[in-house]
Amino acid sequence: MSLMGVDVGTTGCKAAVYATDGRLLSSAYREYPVLHPEPGRVELDSVRVFGLIQEVIREAAVAAATDPVTALSFSSMGETLVPVSRDRRILGNAIVASLDLRGGEYADAVVARVGRDAFYAINRNIPAATYSLPKLMWLRDNAPQMYAAADLFLPWGDCAAFLLGGEPCTSFAQANRTLLFDVRREAWSSCLLEASGLDGSKLPHPVASGTRAGRVDAASASALGLPEGVALVVGAHDQCCGALGAGIIQAGKAVCGMGTFACITPVYGALPDPGAMLRTGLNSEHHAVPGLYVSFIYNQAGSLVRWFRDAFASADRRLLGPDADIYAALDAEIPRIPTNLLVLPYFEPSGAPDFIADASGVIAGLRTHTTRGEILRAIMEGVAFYFVRSLDALAGLNLATQEFVATGGGARSDVWLQIMADVLGVPFVRPELTECGALGAAMLAGLATGVYDTPEAAVAVFVKPARRFEPNARNHAHYRRQFERYERLFAATYPILQDRAES
Questions:
Q1: One domain for residues 225 and 363
Q2: 30 and 98 share a domain?
Q3: Cα–Cα distances in angstroms (integers) from residue 302 to residues 266, 307, 495, in the given order
Q4: Is 428 helix (H, G, I), strand (E, B) or coil?
Q5: Which of 58, 267, 428, 436 has the fewest CB within 10 Å, making it most exposed?
Q6: Of 220, 246, 272, at which residue does a domain stop?
Q7: Which pLDDT score is estimated for 502?
Q8: Strands 181-182 and 187-188
Q9: pLDDT digits (tens, 9 = 90+) for 66-96
Q10: Number of folded domains in the chain?
């Protein structure tokens, strides 16, 4: 018997099959385009995405056929909902809520009706256009036929499970990303539904991650190369699955996912005080593990390194050839001591807690002798500086993080992990398996079907540390001084950057 986890992201999906002893048996990946039908609008072709999800499931399942899959669960992006009918038909494209600009005025209107403090006491998010609620309100008023025809709006992982024969359920964590969920009551909020005028019957049933939600139907199993009776298990928001896959199942630790965005997900043993958390600008939601809660602090990361690669090393890529590791070559140019450059990582709209859309990136301190390796290191330093203020605020609430586990593509860089440890003053650990979204989903599948009795037992099987990066005290002291300059630079340049954005 084996376990499958499927991770559905904004630009691609991955399926991975694991033996119950922790070995990776097979995996498959497909990319899909993000659509821009009009300026400010970002969508996914739902039919195409589901077709590619089926492809990766089929490819991974067939490759692991000698150890057949017995349970399947999904990790998926938050906020983005797919319109479907009760008879399991996709009815239209999915608005990528985290990138699409539609509906911000609806979020503002609901907050005005409910009150900022009262809203946060229910949902524990800072309302913005980047969530599901404003997109649903926009669809109701601007695409009424679509809104009326849809029996359900489902998060991507739950949609895929439903289309394969499962029940229309979603995890508490995914439900929270809609802005319509009462975190304390673990149910849809009648207050927020009334304030938004949305139809709660169009939402899936919220349940704990790891709840069984039926089985893959016979037709889907046959088409996908799965045995009959594969259990479908409710997964979680991708960051929560990634935290479980990284072994972050206790308070005081955090996962740092280092992909296109860097996302730090600290874990709490209880739901933090709403007033204190609101002042930090951070959210709170359920972890994939019962009894634990998380927050998300995120901003650009890998996207900035990719920009650097394309802007400064395009000729190198051509010379090295398509099979060469350009990132390893660039890492070799990075100085091993801190720079005196400052990079403000606002090349695109920022993430939590700032959500700044009207700034732009800054590289300050350049000299004629500055090397491109120094610039790349400064970009990595700037990514780390973005998190300092929020982590300091959490420490002031007795919610300090004692250790980070790094995941994602950026976790392969020794230099970057040492920079993160030095800036934040906390150890970083790289596990053997750094792609943790699908892994966390597979662990939920095993927990739901009795393969593992506890999350601790699952973590003991799957999560093995590969290397630990301790903070360098001298570098950390330098970076604390440098962070003060970073804050002053942003305060001084932000008004200028706002004027530039408006012109």
A1: no
A2: yes
A3: 20, 8, 26
A4: strand
A5: 58
A6: 246
A7: 61
A8: antiparallel
A9: 999 999 999 999 899 999 999 999 999 999 9
A10: 2
Residue 148 within a domain: yes
DSSP codes of every residue in 316-373: HHHHH-TTS-HHHHHHTTS-SS--S-EEE--SS---TTT---S---EEE---TT--HH
Nearest to 301 by CA among 259, 338, 337: 259
Q: What is the per-residue pLDDT for 349?
A: 80
Positions in the chain whose pLDDT score sits under 70:
500-503
Residue 443 resides in a domain: no
Query: Which residue range forms the structural domain that includes residue 489?
Result: 297-430+472-502
CATH code at position 52? 3.30.420.40
Instruction: Give the span between the Cα atoms of 352 and 357, in whole angstroms.
Output: 12
Q: What tens digit of pLDDT does each residue of 420-452 get?
A: 999 999 999 999 999 899 999 999 999 999 999
Same domain, 346 and 212: no
Looking at residue 212, its amino acid is R
∠ CA(12), CA(15), CA(18), 5° rounding? Answer: 150
Query: Do 191 and 328 belong to one domain?
Result: no
Token pair of 484 as six digits:
């003060």
Q: Are residues 208 and 328 in the same domain?
A: no
pLDDT at 409: 87
CA distance 124 to 120: 4
Task: Return the SS3 of 385.
Answer: helix
Query: Are the C-beta atoms of residues 96 and 34 closer than 8 Å to each other?
Result: yes
Inter-axis angle of helices 302-312 and 372-396, nearest 10: 170
How far apart CA 41 and CA 232 sit, in angstroms, is: 33
Question: Any idea how long the chain is?
Answer: 503
Residue 85 domain flag = yes
Asked whether residue 150 is assigned to any structural domain, the reply reads yes
Please tell me whether residues 57 and 174 are part of one structural domain: yes
What single letter denotes the amino acid at residue 158?
D
- Are the beta carbons of 275 and 284 closer than 8 angstroms? no
